[in-house]
């Protein structure tokens, strides 16, 4: 199978510092992929290697099956949108959008009709003769998107395109990107540090930190089944238990938490030993409250007392005291009997928990 | 209180401006005198000193020589200075700061020292008193201005513009002419104008490097007034002022001086 983008063990070093440490990814045609991570995680460096502005120190890079190492950016047939908009300030909107077509020596009539079409696509058909400094931030970024799309690139690269916009415009343009992707089906790589953008737009998300890929998965997998402590804490909110393994019985594990509470859970593998220090992570949304254990093997439960109830509109948040520890639980279906002071059982599907050895 | 401070500011401004233009106010009118000595206010009105210019020995050839020197200096300084400035602004390399400092050092060294050093050096090379020698010297002292202007022009330059052009399919040379150069053009032209003006009225360094055959206009004037201070010099000076104004006026016409010197940031 031929992928639109394939990165094989890509590494990048600056001044002997590893910035990207072995990046492997295959992108199918039409996929919308996000690189998500805090600044300095290597996401922009990876994008720049895809664009051809940087050469990988190691590894191979393929676009549409063609090896791209050492191929300059102007031969890669890509489209790119930058955080800084980066429209040519001395050219009109028309000239900006037409630039890529002019370089390809397209006939004048074709250039005009294609520019008109793409400006309609981004819903700004009337701005031809304006200069970039006469446009608002949102308009500029739409023109920049039009400019990137007009050459019908094989891959569209988006480098934090929404980060310079105010909150309302950001959401508006985010929906616009989603619509354009649906309409055109162009394979897209989107770099962002904003989890909401990544979760709402992507077919798959690559979560990165310190030059490593932490997890690759659909937004649903990334959110509900985080595979590492970093993914758990970087995206959304999470509850953390510190504790020791008290006993192991097959896949059943008994954990003694730091503040003296004992509970059982189940793991799918047997990497653990009795006495080991572990961390358990579970998201507030993944916990459901109840009265009694349903005894199914894939559910873990822990007894607690409701300390605080906060009504937040569509959801209700409970703080449940477990020993000295507060467990945050969020639900869309609050029950009348869950009041402050009530005893409840907090349960979760073990699929949604992350149990890892604690580094000492 | 505010009003008083503003009027003081006005007074100070007035005197500073007067001080700046006073030489013009003396020189230009005094060139129209009908007397045989420089006087202010001028007595009588006459154009005889202007017709006398044609008879002044060596004047025509000095004007042509200085114009040639200033034009070639401006062109070469602009090309070299722009390339050097772009390199310093865009790339990180070992010894970058040293090169930057060395290229700007003619601004810091006393012109007299440069003149003497070049005289010694050029005599050794056989360039003293030649057009090439003067040209090299003038390029040396004008390049720092071009570099400074280009560095200032590049300070607000968004590198992503070049990346955007590259990703759209533009090769490096194309990117330079389509994107980079149009955006630093005002800075480059400022450098050209400054180079022309500095070369055209330089005395200190040329002093060591001119010869009887290769005489610049400022030095011709300089030599002339050591012997006699006739209104002829006022007439020559007025012509020099006019020549110096030409490039400035052309630029004002094409670009507007405020834009050229970065007083107005709208750049198209």
Characterization of the model:
The complex is a heterodimer of chains A (360) and B (268). Chain A is of the alpha+beta class. Chain A is 23% helix and 36% strand. Chain A folds into 2 domains: 230 residues, Rossmann fold (3-Layer(aba) Sandwich); 119 residues, OB fold (Dihydrolipoamide Acetyltransferase, E2P), CATH 2.40.50.140. In chain A, the strands form 4 sheets. Chain A has a 6-stranded mixed beta sheet, sandwiched between helices. A 5-stranded antiparallel beta sheet of chain A has the order 13-12-11-14-20, with no helix packed on it. Chain A has a 5-stranded antiparallel beta sheet with strand order 15-19-16-17-18, with no helix packed on it. The model of chain A has no long low-confidence stretch (mean pLDDT 90). Chain B is mainly α and 268 residues long. Chain B has one domain: MetI-like (MetI-like fold). Helices cover 74% and strands 0% of the residues of chain B. Chain B has 12 helices and no strands. In chain B, helix 1 packs across helix 11, helix 3 runs antiparallel to helix 8 and helix 8 runs antiparallel to helix 11. At the A-B interface, strand 6, helix 2 and helix 4 of A face helix 7 and helix 8 of B.
């Amino acid at each position: 199978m031929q992928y639109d983008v394939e990165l094989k063990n890509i590494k990048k070093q600056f001044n002997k510092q590893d910035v990207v440490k072995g990046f492997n990814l295959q992108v199918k045609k039409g996929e919308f992929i996000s690189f998500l991570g805090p600044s300095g995680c290597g996401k922009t460096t990876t994008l720049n290697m895809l664009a051809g502005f940087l050469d990988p120190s190691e590894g191979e890079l393929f676009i549409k099956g063609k090896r791209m190492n050492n191929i300059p950016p102007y031969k890669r047939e890509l489209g790119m949108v930058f955080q800084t908009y980066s429209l040519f300030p001395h050219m009109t909107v028309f000239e900006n959008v037409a630039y890529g077509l002019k370089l390809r020596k397209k006939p004048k009539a074709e250039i005009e009709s294609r520019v008109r079409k793409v400006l309609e696509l981004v819903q700004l058909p009337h701005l031809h003769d304006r200069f970039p400094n006469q446009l608002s931030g949102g308009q500029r970024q739409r023109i920049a998107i039009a400019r990137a799309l007009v050459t019908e690139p094989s891959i569209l690269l988006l480098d934090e395109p929404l980060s310079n916009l105010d909150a309302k415009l950001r959401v508006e343009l985010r929906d616009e990107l989603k619509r354009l992707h649906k309409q055109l089906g162009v394979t897209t790589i989107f770099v962002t540090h904003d989890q909401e953008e990544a979760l709402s737009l992507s077919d798959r998300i690559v979560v990165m930190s310190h030059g490593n890929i932490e997890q690759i998965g659909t937004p649903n997998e990334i959110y509900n089944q985080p595979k590492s402590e970093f993914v758990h804490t970087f995206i959304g909110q999470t509850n953390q238990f510190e504790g020791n393994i008290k006993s192991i019985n097959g896949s059943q594990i008994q954990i003694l938490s730091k503040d003296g509470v004992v509970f059982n859970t189940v793991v799918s593998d047997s990497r653990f030993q009795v006495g080991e220090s572990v961390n358990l992570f579970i998201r507030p949304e993944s916990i459901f409250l109840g009265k009694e254990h349903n005894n199914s093997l894939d559910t873990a439960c822990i007894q607690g007392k409701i300390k605080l109830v906060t009504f937040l509109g569509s959801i209700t948040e409970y703080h449940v005291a477990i020993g000295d520890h507060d467990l945050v639980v969020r639900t869309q279906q609050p029950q009348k009997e869950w009041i402050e002071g009530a005893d409840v059982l907090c349960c979760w599907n073990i699929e949604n928990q992350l149990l890892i050895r604690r580094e000492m | 209180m505010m009003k008083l401070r503003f009027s003081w500011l006005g007074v100070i401004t007035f005197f500073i401006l007067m001080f700046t233009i006073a030489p013009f106010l003396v020189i230009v009118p005094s060139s129209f005198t009908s007397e045989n000595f420089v006087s202010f206010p001028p007595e009588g009105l006459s154009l005889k000193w202007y017709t006398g210019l044609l008879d002044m020995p060596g004047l025509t050839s000095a004007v042509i020589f200085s114009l040639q020197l200033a034009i070639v200096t401006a062109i070469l300084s602009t090309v070299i200075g722009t390339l050097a400035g772009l390199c310093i602004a865009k790339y990180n390399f070992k010894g970058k700061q040293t090169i930057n400092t060395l290229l700007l050092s003619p601004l810091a060294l006393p012109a007299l020292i440069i003149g003497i050093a070049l005289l010694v050096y050029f005599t050794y090379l056989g360039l003293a008193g030649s057009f090439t020698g003067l040209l090299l010297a003038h390029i040396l002292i004008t390049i720092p201005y071009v570099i400074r202007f280009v560095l200032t022009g590049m300070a607000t330059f968004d590198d992503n513009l070049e990346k955007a052009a590259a990703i759209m399919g533009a090769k490096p040379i194309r990117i330079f002419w389509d994107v980079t150069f149009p955006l630093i053009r005002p800075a480059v032209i400022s450098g050209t104008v400054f180079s022309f003006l500095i070369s055209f009225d330089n005395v200190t360094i040329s002093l060591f490097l001119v010869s009887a055959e290769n005489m610049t206009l400022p030095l011709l004037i300089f030599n002339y007034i050591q012997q006699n201070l006739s209104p002829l010099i006022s007439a020559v000076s007025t012509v020099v002022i006019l020549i110096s104004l030409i490039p400035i006026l052309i630029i004002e016409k094409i670009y507007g001086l405020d834009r050229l010197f970065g007083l107005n940031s709208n750049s198209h």
